[in-house]
């Protein structure tokens, strides 16, 4: 499988995870997993993410989903609410699909910034696929960007729904606003 296909699978798995959190409490690791997963799908991710690292992280996302919603793993009648989303099935016309791709690009860029500020995106430490107490558990930069991380859940869910252009415009505006404010907030947190 090619890297782009794996990145789409990872994005779809992240959508399943955040939708599981819509009806179940997330764990102390969920925000960091969502943030790192989004960052790993971005073209701006520092360092090269290999196909095996993507496969491993997809498994990590699915494991987290089943930790959040354990009944889904063995459900005899799956509802589909927490299933991995097929990125080829984005609903809407071309304009809606384009707006959803823009939304995804924006949250990926924000995730890369948060990931870099977590201390894992420094030179010589790409960190892909590694667990460190700095990120998992303590959640580091995710806690400092709580509003943005909350928005990731909202945006990922919206990508899987059939929203109109009119419904997507305020979400994109919110993404733009968060993206513009984010570096300043992250810089303040390091002082």
Terminal CA distance reads 43 Å
Total separate domains: 1
Parts with pLDDT < 50 across at least 5 consecutive residues: 122-139, 184-191
User: Structural class from helices and strands?
Assistant: mainly alpha
State the oligomer. Answer: single chain
How many strand elements?
0
Helix content: 55-70%
Largest sheet: none
Number of continuous helical runs: 7
Report the order of strands and helices: HHHHHHH
What percentage of amino acids are in beta strands?
under 5%
State Rg.
Answer: 16 Å
In short:
The N and C termini lie far apart (43 Å).
Textual characterization of the structure:
The chain is an all-alpha fold and 191 residues long. The chain is 62% helix and 0% strand. Helix 1 packs antiparallel against helix 2 (30-40) and helix 1 (3-20) runs parallel beside helix 3 (51-68). The longest helix has 27 residues, at 94-120. Mean pLDDT is 83; it is low at 122-139 and 184-191.
Topology:
Layout: H1 3-20, H2 30-40, H3 51-68, H4 94-120, H5 140-144, H6 146-159, H7 165-189
Helix pairs in contact: 1-2, 1-3, 1-6, 2-3, 2-4, 4-6, 4-7, 6-7
């Amino acid at each position: 499988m090619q890297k782009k296909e794996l990145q789409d699978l990872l994005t779809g798995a992240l959508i399943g995870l955040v939708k599981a959190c819509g009806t179940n409490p997330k764990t102390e690791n969920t925000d960091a997993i969502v943030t790192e997963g989004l960052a790993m799908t971005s073209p701006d991710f520092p360092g090269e993410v290999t196909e095996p690292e993507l496969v491993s992280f997809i498994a990590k996302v699915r494991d987290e989903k089943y930790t959040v919603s354990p009944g889904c793993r063995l459900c005899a009648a799956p509802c589909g609410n927490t299933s991995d989303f097929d990125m080829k099935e984005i609903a809407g016309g071309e304009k809606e699909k384009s707006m959803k791709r823009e939304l995804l690009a924006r949250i990926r860029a924000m995730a890369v910034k948060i990931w870099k500020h977590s201390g894992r995106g420094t030179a010589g430490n790409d960190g892909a696929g590694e667990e460190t107490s700095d990120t998992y558990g303590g959640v580091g930069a995710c806690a400092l960007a709580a509003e943005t991380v909350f928005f990731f859940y909202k945006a990922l869910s919206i990508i899987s729904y059939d929203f109109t252009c009119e419904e997507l415009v305020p979400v994109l505006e919110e993404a733009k606003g968060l993206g513009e404010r984010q570096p300043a907030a992250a810089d303040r947190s390091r002082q």
